[in-house]
Amino acid sequence: VPQQDLGGGGGAEEENYTYEEDSTRAQWKTRWHFVVGAIGSAVGLGNLWRFPFLVYRYGGGPFLIPYFLALVFVGIPLLILEFALGQSCGGGNVVCWGALHKRLRGLGLAAVYAGFVVVTYYNIIIALSIFYGIFSFSKHLPWVASNPPADPSERAAANVAASDAFFSEKALHLAADPDLPGMIAAGNLIAAVLFTWILVGLIINNGVKSVTNVVFWTVGLPCVTLIVLIISGAALPGSLDGVRGYLGTWDMSKLADASAWSSATSQIFFSIGICFGIMTAYASYNGKRMSAVKDAIIVSSFNSFYSVMAGFAVYAVLGNLALTEGSSVESVMVAGPSLAFKTFPIALAQLPMGAKQFFCILFFGTLFFLGIDSSFSLCEAAATALHDSCALRHLDQRMIATIVSVFGFMCSLLYTADIGYYLLDVVDHYTNNLLVVAIGFLYCISATWLYRLDEVEEKIGPTGKHALGIHNAAWLCAIIVGNVVGFAVDPKFFYVGPILAVVIVLVGTLSAIVVAVKKKPSGSKDEERGAARPANPSSATTKERVVLVLLGPAEMLRNDLNRCILALYDANIHPWTIHIAWSIVVKYITPTVLSIVFSSTINDLAREGGYGGYSIGYQLFGAGVVFVGLLLVVIGVAVPDALDVWVDDVRESLFIITRRRTPGR
Questions:
Q1: How far apart are CA 414 and CA 181, in angstroms?
Q2: For 205-261, what is the HEC assignment?
Q3: DSSP state of 177
Q4: Are 381 and 92 in contact (CB under 8 A)?
Q5: Cα–Cα distance, 571 to 567 (Å, whole number)
Q6: Are 432 and 87 in contact (CB under 8 A)?
Q7: C-alpha distances in angstroms, 509 versus 197, 501, 504, 516, 550?
Q8: DSSP characters for 37-48?
Q9: Dihedral pair phi/psi, residue 662, rounded to 5°
Q10: pLDDT, the chain, mean
C-alpha cells in the first residue's frame, strides 16, 4: 500500500509496504475468539465490587460523566495501541516495545512483571470464591449468626460479627495485629490456591490454542449468572431503594471533588487490563487483517456495560439487606473483598431456605469465572514473553506453562500466611496506583514522543533537534510543575498548578515552532566553525514542520501501524484505521491524565503517612514492588544489551522491515 511519508514536501519517495502472515505462530480460531478472550481478560472482579461502590460514593449518575470521559481519552486509546502493536509485531509485550526501540524492552518487561505480581495475589481472591462456594452447600451458611436476635439492629450486628469471624478466622486465619504475625498459613486456602494454579496451568498449557477452547465458557457463564442475579434481585423487597441509591441520585456537587475524576480514570485503567502485557500478547495471536480500532472499542465498551449492569445486581440485593436490617443502603455499602465476602453473603443469607444456597453458589461461581479469565490472561502474557525469548523459545509451551504456574503458586503462598491479606492490600494499592499508572505514562511518552525521533528531526531540518527538544522539555516541565504546585498549594488555589502548566506549554510550544520554521542563515556559527552543511536539507513546508513538531513521532507510529494492517487488504477494502485524533489524545491528553492520577496517589501517601495505616515495613514492601518494575525500565534504557535474552530478533525486526521496505530494496 503506497503512502506518502509524513513531511518531506513534494518530491518525497513513496514507500511500498508488504506484509506476510507468520505461519509458525499459533492463532485464534476466529476473530470472535480473540474478542471474547480480550473481553474475559478485561471484565474481572473490579467490575462487580469496585465500580458500584464508586458510583454510589461520587453522587450516583454523575460519576458516569468522568467515567466515560476516561474511557474515551484513556482506556480506548491505550487499548488500540496495545492491540495494534501486538497484531503488527506478532510478539509479546517485550518484543513489541523492543520493535519500537531496543531501549524500550525494559518497559515491555516491566508491564509483564506488573501483571505477574497482580496474578500472584489475584488467585488468592479466586481461591476465596472457591472456599466460599464450597460452604454455600451447607444447610446453615456459616457467615451469619446461627441464632440471630429478633431485633433487626441486633440481628444485623450479630450477622456482621459472624461474617467478619468467618472471613478472618476460618477463611484467612488472619492475624489480629498486622505487626504481630505468627506466620501461620491457612491450610484450606492453600489447597484452594493450588487448585486455582493447576487450573490456570491447564488452560494455558498449549498457549492460545487451549485458551481458545475455554474463553466462550469463562465469559459466557458470568454473563448468564449476572442476568439471573439482576432478575432475581429485582424481585426482592427493597431492591428499588437500592437501585435508586445506585443511579437514581444525582449529586452533581460530587464532581467538584478531584478524587471523583481520579477514581473514574483509575477504574477504567485497571478494569480494561491495559499495561499488563495481556492485550499485546493476545493480539499477537491475531490475524493481521483484524481491525485493532474496532476490536478495542468493542472490548472496552462491553467492559463498561458489564460494570454498569453489575451495579444493578449488587444494589438490588443490598437494598433488600438494608430493608431487612432496618438501615440505609449507605450503611451496608462497602467496596472490594469486603463487599464480596462479608456484606453480600449476609444479604444472600436473608433469602428463604434453598434459595439462599442457590444464589450463594451462583454469586461465588460468578466471582470465580470473572477471576479465572483475568488470571489465565495475565499468566498468558508472561508465558508469551517467555516463549518469545531467545533463551526459552526452544521449550515446549506446556513446559513454559508449568514454569509460570509453579513459580506463581510459590509466590502466592506468601499471601496465605496470617498477614497475607494485609500484604495483598498493600501490594495491590502500590502496584495498581503507582507502578501500572507509571507504565501507562511511559507507554504514551515512548510511543508518541520518542518513536523514530531522529527521522522526525531530519525531516524538520537543521533545527529539528532543538525544536523537538524544546517542545518535549516544555511539556514534561509543565506536567511536573502543574502537578507539584497543584497538589502542594491549598486546595482552594489548586488552579494555580494548571495555569502555570498551560503557560509553560504555550511558551515552549510557540518557541519550538519558531525554531523549527526558522532556517539557519548562510554564514551561521556552525559554518564558521567548519561544520558541514546538511547533505539533505529539509524540503518540508512551514505547515509540515509545525505538524512534525506537534505530532511527528505520534504520526510516524500511527502511519506505520496502519500500514502493517492495510498491507494485507485489497485496494477496494477500507478497514477501520487509526485516526489522527488518536495521535493527539495519546500524545497530550492521556499522559497528562495519568500523571495527575499518579501525583494524586503520591500526595495521598505523603499526607496520610503511607497507605491504609500500615507500618513502615508494609509500605517498604509495596514500594519495593514498584521499585523493581521501574528498575526494569531503567535497565532497558541504560543497558539495553542486558535484556538481549528476551529478544526474538525475527519478530522484533518484522515490524521494522515492514514499515521501511521500499521498491527495489
A1: 12
A2: CCCHHHHHCCHHHHHHHHHHHHHHHHHHHHCCCCHHHHHHHHHHCECHHHHHCHHHH
A3: S
A4: yes
A5: 9
A6: no
A7: 52, 12, 8, 10, 8
A8: HHHHHHS-HHHH
A9: -125, 165
A10: 85
Q: Cell numbers at residue 556, please?
A: 510516524
Confidence check: pLDDT of 108 > 90: yes
- Nearest Cα neighbor of 467 from 515, 422, 506, 430 is 515
10: pLDDT strictly greater than 80: no
Q: Residues of 405-420 as b/e, b for ≥16 C-beta within 10 angstroms? A: beebbebbbbbbbbbb
Sign of the C-alpha dihedral computed for residues 448, 454, 455 and 461 taken in this order:
positive
Local structure of residue 353 (DSSP, 8 states): T
Rounded distance between C-alpha atoms, residue 159 and residue 142, angstroms: 10
Rounded to whole angstroms, what are the CA distances from 288 to 32, 48, 184, 279, 320? 14, 34, 51, 15, 50
Does residue 511 sit in helix, strand or coil?
Answer: helix
| CA distances, 504 to each of 205, 471, 474 (Å) | 52, 10, 6
Contact between residue 425 and residue 210 where contact means Cβ atoms under 8 Å apart? no
3-class DSSP string for 87-113:
HHHCCCHHHHHHHHCHHHHHHHHHHHH
Q: Which of 136, 117, 663 is nearest to 367 (CA)?
A: 136
Question: What residues pair up with 390 in beta bridges, in sequence order?
Answer: none
The pLDDT, as a whole number, for residue 566 is: 64
Distance of CA 320 to the CA centre of its chain: 34
Q: Which amino acid is at 188?
A: N
DSSP state for residue 608 in the 8-state scheme: H
Q: Which of 61-70, 291-300, 523-532, 614-623 is least confident? A: 523-532
For residue range 14-73, list pLDDT tens digits in order. 344 444 555 567 788 888 899 999 999 999 888 888 898 888 888 888 899 999 999 999
